[in-house]
Amino acid sequence: MSLARSLKTLSMEEIRAFVASIDYVLTDCDGVLWKELTPIDGSAKVLSLLKSMGKKVFYVTNNSTKTREEYVSKFEKLGFSASKEEIVGTARIVATYLKDKNFTGKAYLIGSKGLGNELSAAGIDFFGLGPDPVQTDNLPEVFDAKFEKDVSAVVVGFDLHISYPKLLKAATFLSNPKCLFVATNTDEVFPAACDNTVPGTGTLVAAVETCSQRKAQIIGKPSTLMFSALAKEHNIDPKRAIMIGDRAKSDILFGKNVGMTTLLVYTGVNSKEDVEMWQTSLDPSDKLLIPDYTLDSLGDLLPLLENLTK
User: Which residues lie below 8 Å from residue 42, measured CB to CB, with a gap of 6+?
Assistant: First the structure.
């Protein structure tokens, strides 16, 4: 049986060997480093100490609402040190993916400004940003609306303005089999600081997949496309890397898909109870979600690392 180990149960020698085995640290952001605008205690210090120990740190996020420049600003405001080159977000990877395909057509975007800005920076022509509400209760009028022609791609990210007209347009454009269908991620919920359950981008992707009767090319975790883009620029050996996350279906599965060590923290989506359930489950798909290591919080790694530097 595959069992996750809490890093806090490792001996000093095991911690030393664990740290020595890692050259690259890939970490999720929401639910690991912060929740919305609230930093998670100790996370910034852990990453700073890892950098001082010579580890290369990269921030790998499925969140497509910000550009890398906007993320740098958020990192600074929340007390983290990060450069644009260290940030790997789905907004940029989607733009890179389309550019690598020599995409020259027009894209319909269900998404937010961050994704739109990255598409613009890559020279990709798109439309659809912002509200698109239902203008009438006359169903035939809604159904028979006239749309843009020659749309070559539909891109789906997080969009607070999702609406029936947007789904209608996406499904209509995707009825052309030559139209590309690209989505940032399939995260079901967003790790928020409030008590509400906040639907994630996966909710929107599932809706478009359902009405278009097509499957999207997923760019973000757990897709290996995220790692391929990063490894291409930084020559990362996955056997010398660790993926830190709070969501097993994206972060941990992503790490396993490319052969990285994995660490699940319990400050976001998944809990200790989830891991215990996966470990006793007979479902093979649950076994894939079991991380190598766990911690209640990334900040719990701080005293373990500090002991190594004494």
Answer: 297, 298, 299, 300, 301, 302
